[in-house]
Structure prediction request, 211 residues.
Amino acid sequence: LLVLLDAKRGDIGSTAEGYAAAYLGRDAVLPADALTANPYLGFDTLEPFVTSARANGRGLFVLVKTSNPGSGDLQDREVEGEPLFLRVAHGMARSESLLLGSKTGWSSLGVVCGATWPDQARRVREALPRSLFLVPGYGAQGGSASAAVAPFVPGPNGLEGGIVNSSRAILFPESAKGATDAHAWEQAVEGALERAIGELGNAVQGTADGA
Prediction:
């Protein structure tokens, strides 16, 4: 299984280098196939992560437009005529190219864009056409299936270009509140998982049919 570590790391200088080595390095103490990183201390803080990912065949998902309601407090602020989240996206274009895969055409540089902000996610897609999207906010946070796949693009086998994450809606579904044993809980989780797969599948197919 591929392991994506949602650690949201971000720091300066040698500390950033230490984080990169710990998670993405060749001899990482807590190795992961990909890591989430926070860019809001500056683009220089991402460089150790990009370097380690490139050297060791790993991936990086950078926070751009997060799913929480308060993300707009800072990420939507206008900076020289465009929102900060979009300036972050434009600033990662070089890293997207550095981590571009030779076989798939997709970059190992990905971005985090919440399903709660589909219009903003589409703008990020325009800025980073070859980056994979990690999409939180679907399910418990209110993001719909169609909003979750908004930044995906047509591929040879349907829409592609991202991973939709749903944690609470599957692990703690409404139907599990009345569970009195492990079996009932498992049934509730399986039902929630099947519903999520169905909703997302319909959204992908509906978008593909309309494209």
Q: What stands out?
A: The two ends are 32 Å apart (CA to CA).
